[in-house]
Amino acid sequence: MVGDRLSEVFDLVEVRGLLSGGLAVRGPWVSRAGIDHPLKFFAMLRGRARLVTDGVHGMIELEPGDVAVLNNRSWLEVEGGTGDGPRREVTPAADFPAADFIRADGGTDVLVGGHVDLNPTGRALLLQALPPVAHVRASAAAAGNLRGTLHRLFDEVTGDRMGSAFAIRQYGQLLVLEVLRAYVGQTELPPGWLRALTDERLRPALGLMHAEPGKRWGLEDLARAAAMSRTSFAERFRATAGVPPLTYLNRWRMLLAQRALRDGDARVGSLAFDLGYASESAFSTAFKREVGESPLRYRRRVRDEDSGARLEHTRRWSAAAGPAAPPTAAPSG
Length: 333
What we know:
- It is a single chain.
- The protein is an alpha+beta fold.
- The chain folds into 2 domains: about 15-185, Sandwich (Jelly Rolls); about 200-295, Arc Repressor Mutant, subunit A, CATH 1.10.10.60.
- The protein is about 50% helix and about 15% strand.
- It has 13 helices and 10 strands.
- A hairpin with a 6-residue loop joins strand 4 (about 50-55) and strand 5.
- Helix 4 packs antiparallel against helix 5 (about 165-185), helix 8 (about 220-225) packs across helix 9 (about 230-240) and helix 10 crosses helix 13 (about 295-320).
- The longest helix is centred in the last third of the chain and has 27 residues, at about 295-320.
- It starts with a helix and ends in a 12-residue tail after the last helix.
- About 30% of the residues are buried.
- This is AraC family transcriptional regulator.
- InterPro entries: AraC_lig, AraC_XylS_family_regulators, Homeodomain-like_sf, HTH_AraC, HTH_AraC-typ_CS, Tscrpt_reg_AraC-type_HTH.
- Keywords: DNA-binding, Transcription, Transcription regulation.
């Protein structure tokens, strides 16, 4: 059930993880940078390092295989390496010098970083679910799959093989999923949807809301499913999810509505009925209150943005590929 609910959320947020830089360096080193994405991640493939960022007290020690996800931070500093001599400042290579990474020996620190691309729904959900820094330790029992996904993603980035762009997108999504799985398994979660999905007592009630979001669920129905009194259920739900049960239900309906408007051509009136609203106007009012704009305006905007993003992606791909190779040339991957 937890896995099913998490899959539903991932379908809504369109998670993608993208590697954007890395370094392979010997000796004492330090790297400093501003952060221009809400969710950044760093993976220590080899060696050890210490990470500092705004809003977090003290250093975070990164061991081999550790992953750190920075949530809405503005800057970071990472230092590592051993030996004599001054600590030199290094800048992660954006173009991934594959040979440097592949040849790196046991005395070389290897660190890769990237960002998580999300739609607005995903940003709202994941930024709320994670702390300022989510540190996933390689020693955690649930981190084995995460390490495997990281190495496969890295292999695709540095391998220059045919179909690598598709593989990178898939492994990026799996990377974020494995980070959440490992993180859930090793720490106490803050109140929010992710913590609610893992709560055994609330699971039956959440299952009802997710399975039939258009039904007019009342507090009594949901409390009965959880085998709790109305008062106990309401208090536990709010403490776990961060919002009352019916607020959670309304937000889940709005997430489903955003996906339907973004990806389909359903009429607003039909969508309102499917999601349990008495009229199109009641749905539109609720949607505008939650999302900040009317359903039809939202549909036009996100489709225009998606078209622009696709054109930009095609332009970058064409620029990176360069001139077409002659018919007799070997494929470049």
